[in-house]
Design brief:
By secondary structure, this protein is α/β, with parallel strands linked by helices. It has helices spanning about 15-20, 45-55, 65, 80-90, 95-100, 130-140, 225-235, 240-245, and strands at about 1-5, 30-35, 60, 110, 115, 145, 155-160, 165, 175-180, 185-190, 205-210, 215-220. The strands form two sheets. The chain has a six-stranded mixed beta sheet. Helix 6 (about 130-140) links the parallel strand 5 and strand 6 (about 145). Helix 7 runs antiparallel to helix 8 (about 240-245). It is globular. The relative contact order is 0.19. It binds zinc ion. Zinc ion (ZN) binds near residues 8, 36, 64, 150 and 152.
Length: about 250
């Protein structure tokens, strides 16, 4: 089974289309989407349309999907994120607002070995920033390989016995980072963010998993950041959201 794993698209159609050009429909069997389709970016409707056209096999919501559809208040958001959520709520078409509001909470199983969550398996809104967080999240995972998002930083945590080790793609480095899945180990893997990477590498980030080859690849794709920035500026969203795309923060 070949999986395509997409996370944290954040209303950035330029980044999403660059990834989909690199990963066309015949290159994978199952599509997994880990939430935060919208928020921050200037093209939320385009992203929701594109993702629903692809009929993902598993799709879950992120925290921005909840706030931008009024399911949750913006209390925990900073000023810029709250402003973007408000703009997104006003901009989404009624149909797309309904689609995003209807996304289920994670975690969800994708097959007997793979599950997905937005933050962690035990809480969709918790962040995994380090080995301690990863170890708690791995304890609550029900599958050998768990894909998560939320931090916008691509990384692979591997539980070998009782020890957690980390593999981080080098920012600005190779387009592909390989993680080999070994039978007796457990994995917590973030494909990185498509629409707003935060590891200082501005390239869009996603992952693939070939369960027959037992191989995960975290991949980076350059895209027209200038266009995505222009759409943000022209729509009246905060300028800082355009700026950060250029530096990957
Ligand atoms: Zn996000």
């Amino acid at each position: 089974m070949r999986f395509l794993i997409l996370s944290d698209i954040h209303g950035n159609i330029d980044a999403l289309d660059a990834v989909l050009a690199r990963a066309p429909r015949d290159s994978y069997d199952r599509l997994l989407v880990l939430g935060d389709l919208v928020g921050y970016g200037g093209t939320p409707n385009e992203v929701v349309d594109r993702i629903f056209e692809l009929s993902p096999d598993v799709i879950i919501r992120g925290n921005h999907d909840k706030v931008a559809t009024g399911i949750e208040s913006a209390d925990k958001f900073n000023r810029v994120a709250a402003e973007a959520a408000r703009w997104t709520q006003d901009t989404l078409s009624p149909e797309n607002r309904k689609r995003v509001a209807g996304l289920p909470a994670g975690p969800k199983n994708a097959d007997k070995d793979v599950e997905v969550c937005h933050g962690t398996p035990f809480d969709e809104d918790s962040y995994v920033f380090d080995e301690d967080d990863a170890s708690r999240a791995l304890e609550s995972a029900s599958r050998q390989v768990c894909f998560f998002g939320h931090t916008h930083v691509p990384v692979a945590y591997v539980l070998k016995g009782s020890e957690v080790t980390v593999t981080r793609p080098q920012p600005g480095g190779a387009e592909t980072t390989v993680v080999n899945i070994i039978k007796k180990d457990r994995y917590l893997i973030n494909p990185g963010s498509i629409g707003q990477p935060r590891d200082t590498d501005p390239r869009a980030s996603y992952a693939t998993y070939d369960s027959k080859k037992r191989r995960v690849e975290i991949r980076r794709v350059p895209y027209r950041i200038d266009l995505a920035q222009q759409r943000i500026t022209e729509s009246g969203l905060p300028e800082s959201l355009a700026f950060r795309l250029g530096i990957g923060r």
